[in-house]
Write a structure and sequence with these properties.
single chain, mainly beta, 5-stranded antiparallel β-sheet, 12% helix
């Protein structure tokens, strides 16, 4: 048994493996920076709203958030959003404070939409973007967006906060089955 311990110690030292008390999630935030959900996940729905909630790490407390950029990286159809019915808010003390936003499509990337805040928002806030599509895609499946934020100021910084995933289902087939 003693020779087994010696062998293990020798292997650990020779290969550089040491048991250190370093957390397994070193460098990775405990909570996700981005969450996404939809009010309706049926294909073709006209009443859906997509909620994207962004919680930036405390290390970016000096940031002033100016833009959020959504690039659709998966999905059969390009989802278009309604500028007039989309909005953003921060929640403080249980109250939702609305923020002014403007939506714009990227001129050189048709799958990219930019949300610009009327006033820069402190990054220490939890920001929710409520984006209203004209309608859900008519093709079922997974639709994903790469989301990054851009700070305000002379030295604008760009940070990818994650990938937002929405899934849509076609209920039409189920209704046909039950009618027969």
């Amino acid at each position: 048994m003693n020779s087994f311990k010696t062998l293990c110690k020798t292997l650990a030292i020779s290969t550089g493996i040491f048991l250190l008390s370093v957390p397994t999630t070193y460098g990775i935030p405990a909570k996700p920076l981005l969450t996404a959900k939809t009010t309706y996940n049926q294909t073709g729905s006209w009443d859906a709203t997509y909620y994207f909630t962004i919680k930036l790490p405390k290390s970016l407390a000096n940031w002033q958030l100016q833009e959020v950029v959504f690039t659709q990286i998966e999905g059969l159809e390009n989802i278009e959003f309604n500028q007039k019915e989309s909005f953003a808010f921060i929640e403080t003390s249980g109250q939702k404070e609305k923020l002014g936003i403007t939506l714009a499509k990227s001129s050189n990337q048709p799958q990219t939409m930019i949300v610009n805040f009327d006033q820069p928002v402190p990054a220490s806030q939890t920001i929710t973007l409520a984006l209203k599509p004209f309608y859900n895609p008519t093709s079922e499946g997974i639709y994903q967006y790469r989301v990054h934020v851009i700070s305000a100021g002379e030295k604008a910084n760009n940070l990818v906060v994650g990938t937002a995933r929405l899934q849509f289902y076609n209920d039409f087939d189920d209704h046909l089955f039950y009618q027969w």
